[in-house]
Amino acid sequence: MQAPTPGANGSALRLAVVGKGGVGKTTISATIARTLARRGRRVLVLDHDSMPGLSTSLGVQSADEPLLNAAMQQGEDRRYRFVEGLDPISAAQRFSIDGPEGIRVLQVGKSTIAGPDAVQASVNAFYEIVRHLEHAPQFSGWAIVGDLPAGGRQPGCGWTPYATHFLLVVEATWQSMLTARRIRRIADDIRPDARVSLVVSKAAGSADVERISGFLGMPVFGVVPLDDDVSSAERVGVPVFEQAPGSAALAAITSIAERLDGEQHEPAPARSCADRG
Asked: Would the pTM of this model clear 0.85, i.e. be above it?
């Protein structure tokens, strides 16, 4: 791996993109990652979701079998451990794949007809990796962007200790706003010194922005407008970057990424489910 390029202020961006399913988290995560890479950042994207999505939005091929399965073996006590010669960080380096703009992508492993047992080794490896990334010198100065599955279960159970900034993506539906309120409480609980920033997604106008901001009692970090170009890209399975480079949503997400790149992100100690009591 080549030497990383730090952000505008030399800081390390550690971002987890969270929210209800269907609000646009994956499109936003992928576009932020590609924008940061185009600005000279070294970027590691963490695909936390066992369902397909990020690969298409980012423009990479999802592996047929979870690559991280090869990183772990199950002992006689039924516990998974890294194979000889590997640890969490070396596994992240070996089993992450190349993405566009020089991005590296680490996938938790996609669910298959074989059921959860087929990805269990990969899930265990991914969990160990995300718990060790924050202070790993091999990724010092890198931008890390985590695309999380719907809801707050993963943040609440220790899957985002690397994150010093949660990007809370919300659309103007009751279900999305209620989910966002719950996720914000979880983020505040597990890591009270982390930032939580509100992104209004699929906004049809200023009324949507005001409704969401008022309900959550949060200022708005960024607004992504409702855009048919995004839907068109998703229908054909092509990244918005390639399908509609002039789209309004792409411009808005690019602006969010540029703002993130210029702000300070300091690491801080995380807390687990057990710590919350």
From this structure: yes
